[in-house]
Amino acid sequence: MKWSALALLSAAAPALGAVHEIWWNITYVENANPDGLQPRRVIGVNGTWPPPPIDVTTNDLLLVHATNSIEEATSLHHHGMFFNSTSWMDGAVGVSQCGIPTGQTFDYVVPINSSGQWGTYWVHAHASGQYVDGLRAPVVIHPEKEAHAYDEEFTIVLGDWYHDQHADLLKQFISIANPGGAEPVPDSALIYFAQNGSYLGPIAGTSPDPVTGAVGFNENATLPFQPGKTYRLRIVNTSAFAAFFFWIDGHEMRIIEADGTDVEESPIDLISITVAQRYSVLVTARNDTNANWAIHANMDTDMFDTVPDTLNPNITSSITYNPSKPVTDLGTVNEYHDVDDLSLVPLIAKPLPPADRTIELEVSFDTMDDGTNHAMFNLVTYNSPLVPSIMSEMSLGQNATVANAYGPNSFVIDHLETFDIVLKNSDAGKHPFHLHGHQMQLVGRSQDYTSDDPALNPPLNNSQPNPMRRDTVQVPSMNSVTLRVTADNPGAWFFHCHIEWHLEVGLAVVFIEAPLVAQERNNIPQFMFDQCTALGKPISGNAAGHASTTDLAGLTLGPFPQNNGWHPKGIGAMFGCVLTATIGMATVTWYTLGGHISEEEMEHEVREQVEAKERRGRFFGLLKKRSS
Question: pTM (2 decimals)?
Answer without folding.
Answer: 0.89
